[in-house]
Amino acid sequence: MQKNDLSDCSFHATDINRRLCAREVPMKILVLGMPRTGTCSLMRALKYLGYYDAYHGYDAIFKNPRDCEMWYAALCAKYDGIGKVFGREEFDKLLGHCQAVFALPALCLAEDLVNAYPDAKVILTYRDVDEWHQSVKQTIVPLVTGRYQYLCQFMDNILLMRTRWIRPTFRKSWQILFKGNFDANARYSFEEHYKAMQSLVPSSRLLLYHVEEGWTPLCRFLGVPIPQVPMPRGNERKALREKFRRLMRHMFWEYLVKAAKLVTYTFLAFTLWNSLC
Fold first, then answer.
1. Structure pTM?
2. Fold (CATH) for 18-234
3. Which residues cross the membrane (predicted)?
4. If you placed Cys at 232, which of 44, 85, 177, 179 could pair as Cys (CB 3.0 to 4.6 Å)?
5. How far apart are the C-alpha atoms of 266 and 258, rounded to whole Å?
6. Where are the alpha helices (DSSP H) in 4-103?
């Protein structure tokens, strides 16, 4: 297992409409720790232990961007009162192919997921709050607040790209999680989230887990044998930045291709119209 491998989050975008899907495998694990607390490492560990699929928030960015349509609808229903609040039926469609779910946007629907899957075990990944704060500022904050975001959203909308719901979904998740102001509310939101989860979930169902603890507490909690290999690591800062740079290059290429097709079709339609007039 290579330290900086992000192959679990490779960009192989599909266009699956999850509203037409159903539960295929049982939901077994809800990982409801804050982002940048080892969720990507844990995702790889659970896959190694045989939990498939382990759905990270990155799946909604890199693998099936159309998932964000449903995630955004779920957030609007819960926090804005628009549409039906998601329950077991809706989550089974969105996450029916998964045995575990991690990170944003699921984190903003933590209570609903805990109630929807009463037999699933809950893992709260955590780390020192100051280390966490610094890590988020150096990795996620630039992605959320980058100047190019507005240009990309504009292009997504006018070209009807399959990625057009990604930014609204994660921007809304970010605003919900940190009440619109990361700098002012991050540490408070971090602490309140862990208090709320520990209050909500019975101790028999809950593991408070630091990835540096390795396999032993994780495997004992899950009731599986302890692997004789090192605990996987994922989502190193440099690798994460490179992953998103590659994604941006891929998206700009898709913009060019789709714009070229639009111009070509428009020209052909205009030519045909003139020939008929």
1. 0.84
2. Rossmann fold (3.40.50)
3. 255-273
4. 44
5. 12
6. 39-48, 67-80, 88-94
